[in-house]
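Quick question about two entries, pasted in order.
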Amino acid sequence: MSLRVLDSYDDWRQCIAVDCGIPLTKAFVRRRLEELANPRLHTTSRFIEVWGEAHRQRVIEWFERAERELA
């Protein structure tokens, strides 16, 4: 399986909610935002290693947008 960097909110949302079948609930979004905000966590440091810091920032923005849409 090859990995690709998602470059838009719509692609990211499709990947998470439809392709992976992960519901974007308030709890899930909040938990991921907390994890992504802490680069000392293994999962976050690994994310940065694989995808890069710029992509982490984009993903944080997309989770923040999803959080606003859920409000």
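Here is the second entry:
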Amino acid sequence: MVKARIDVLESLRKRIEETEPDMLRSLVHGVVELLMGAEADSMCGAVYGERSEDRSNYRNGYRVRDWDTRVGTIPLAIPRLRHGSYFPDWLLEHRRRAERALVTVVAEAYLLGVSTRKMEKLVETLGIKSLSKSQVSEMARELDQMVEDFRNRPLPGGYPYVWLDAMVVRCREGGRIVNVAVVVATGVSTDGHREILGMDVFTSEDGTAWTTFLRGLVARGLSGVQLAVSDAHEGLKAAIAAVLPGASWQRCRTHFARNLLTRVPKQAQDLVAAAVRSIFAQPSPEEVHAQHARVVAQLERFPQAAELLEEAGPDILAFAAFPKEHWRQIWSNNTQERLNRELRRRTDVVGIFPNRDAIIRLVGAVLCEQHDDWAVARRYMSQESLARTAKGPEYQQIVEADAKILSSAAA
């Protein structure tokens, strides 16, 4: 056993010394080929070149296959067997969906002749020496079917809370580079888990696009929406009112604060921001509304800001009608913003997409992976609190009133 270890280490040392000076690359190459050789010997029942009564098969040369790694493309010599076949499934597995999508998008742009030096450098950074059209087509077909199934899956059950947002990416259309809108919806199901409800690509983020998108979600089964959270896009607000009747609308407090501070002198912005944050730090709905009125009065020296805060009151305080344990998640669109940052991290690498299908392929694959991660993660909200939400804001107000009566009686 000791001698075998010494032989392996000696062989590995020689491989590193005799090959190119890239030690990490040589080390990875040598270790992997030694492991494959050992596995092939195990299938043969004897070490390569050894005469043994236990031998059941023989080596029959090698076949070379490129292995894409973070240290570059490494040509691996995979052992062949005289009878049967050997393939290292533990090593040469398919890439993760999002990585395959990114590679496919880059390769498609490259093969369509729209690449630049930056795109060529990106391909090398990904550790890929070359991509053929057949490889791209095969990868694209698999990804497209997976993303299509994910985008069109039924949406069973109710979703009390829904977050909506859009991001702009660049795409080639008709020989021009144009901006298109990628719209995404996430929600919390009645069992407390977050889900990616859907995504689509539109020419612009207008009321028609949002109405079409929301109607598609409803057709797939979206129901039971109590609160929709988004920024103050007029087209989106109109679509929510038209397609999700009975649902309240929560204006993202983060986006609102940015808009409010533009109406305040720079030297007073920190003070005003702190005052607005105090509205959301109150322990009960009544105190939230009371603090809102006090802050409006405090901002009288900034008439435009005071007017905006007063008018936006019903929209930015819609969260207060729902269980207090949900407030932090529903008073802003931060959940969607964090998801958008992850999407942007992937799309910025591509820069300009060759077509809309490439956008759907990459963004859809990333969203599909995020959806799977959320499915096995801890619940975003408890089922007990969501059960109260399902009975509506009026029920929540009654519960809070009863709790006040009980606390007063106890005092």
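Reply: Strands lie at 59-69, 72-81, 161-173, 176-188, 194-202, 227-230, 248-251, 352-353. DSSP finds 17 helices and eight strands in the chain. Hope that helps.
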